[in-house]
Amino acid sequence: MAFVVTDNCILCKYTDCVAVCPVDAFYEGPNFLVINPDECIDCDLCTPECPVDAIFQEDEVPESQKQFIQLNADLAQIWPRITDVKAPAEEAKKWDGIPNKLKYLIIDE
Prior knowledge:
Helices cover 17% and strands 11% of the residues.
């Protein structure tokens, strides 16, 4: 079972979770992070590090966010791995808690 990055990461993109991942399972897009489910070892170190509560265990992803399970798997195949902590998005605090941000997801830059 893997962990999944969900909607609230979009336009926030805090990378605190990246620092604690022992297997470097995070991948970075322009305004969102994902976890590769084939690499995630289900350690749960990332969940408490996410300041916007955007990471869930796969079987605990809220019903309204289930599409993020497949989205994480798909985007991890095309985005580059991220292993270093970076500054969050410029307006991360403004976007924290705003629902339904999937329409703002940028796949390619």
